[in-house]
């Protein structure tokens, strides 16, 4: 596990992503954790401006970015101050001494230079003036001092590539492409990359510091690529549209950490998707609803604050019974909260957060790659049941990466949408007797002209109705339609362990990796613990209550103040116990494993 950390202008995200891509090409399994400030450019040298990127790579299957890094690369005192507490005892600490000036030390809150006292004696310390070596390596390219210093992240990357046996050519090719219009900058960065590697080869390292190679992982045969959750979500939506035979229309307003879905889909216009960057969140979702009314599939992407603004329009989609996909990439809240940090605090809002009895389908992806599968599932359910579907991901899934086996799209069963064409006996709220979905007619089709809207409609005619009995019936029918989705989703499975025992750890969303790893560790220690992960949040799988009752204890780790645990307790009347973390950071494996051991020891 390596963590690159520095100022938000030091290029740590780029360094980490390039190390990750190279590691994927080497055939390792990996998981990443980008961690950066919300400010576009926080004050240089301050602790709240620190940007980090952790990479966990191995020769075996791994599920998380790791708890504590083995290697910390600290590009300045602030990066050291913020991240040192996480470094493993005896871990390797690589420090850029060139940034440890009196001014930077003061900004980071140091009274004295930690490189000169005994405070770092518990680590293997490698002190290098990376700034000086970088300037020397790019001196011949005629760059200004500011541009030259920027290359220090590539020098650092080169050193780490030497230390862990990574190849450099893919990064060099990437640099040539990125700076194609400025070859001198590309060449300077490549020179810095190579210089860092050469330094590792030729410098006399302190005792205990040497090159170390992680062999290839034994992954299932196939074609792989690195994928983030937002990339996978974008491709899943596109694949879902193809399987449904529909054109897609994304109406979106930029919001961290969902914005890159808009970016990815905007580059896929050739595949039948229209993207529209609206002036605000309300306009974005209303445009998507309009697209669905016109016969395409409307999609909107957002995070918690945007979901709040879209709420009234989502209610319109519920009462008009139009298919609509809402991707909520959750972040820390409330209000604008922690824009670049992760959280799972929108679950209750997604299920219940609209005026009136306003049910819809809620799904949750569990890994970056699973975002692809669940996006397709969102399209399938939205079009089959004529309902909005909220797909919950979060900032951790959105930005973290993993090797993803590229699926064969022909292995996915198409679910072509059949829109109404027969005008005989038509009205807009005629329903399929099995799914209770209303028929979907494209406006302007001869004989199928109709209007829909936010006012209640007659069950028998589709006209506006204020009849109290009719309203009661329509509310019940809409609820029954969504509840019926439970008949069309997989039964809840046990992801790991026996189907009964002392403890079931129940998770949802991005806690999957940490829970799975913690349960595996506990089982190796002989504890009778199992793991079940819920992906269908509303309605839930119809056998979930039966599964829960087969265990003496139920533990629910969540990155919120206790949301799924409330639902499980109220819906299934079980004494579920919550483990809550609301720190803007994912769970560590050790946190969940300690709770498992403590709960079983006290029972």
From TrEMBL:
Domain Pyruvate/ketoisovalerate oxidoreductase catalytic: 9-196
Keyword Oxidoreductase: yes
UniProt name for this protein: 2-oxoacid:acceptor oxidoreductase subunit alpha
Record-linked Pfam families: PFOR_II, POR, POR_N
Domain of life: Bacteria
Domain Pyruvate:ferredoxin oxidoreductase core, first and last residues per copy: 502-566
Ranges for domain Pyruvate flavodoxin/ferredoxin oxidoreductase pyrimidine binding: 250-458
SUPFAM superfamilies xrefs: Pyruvate-ferredoxin oxidoreductase, PFOR, domain III, Thiamin diphosphate-binding fold (THDP-binding), TK C-terminal domain-like
High-level lineage: Bacteria, Pseudomonadati, Myxococcota, Polyangia, Nannocystales
Keywords noted in UniProt: Oxidoreductase
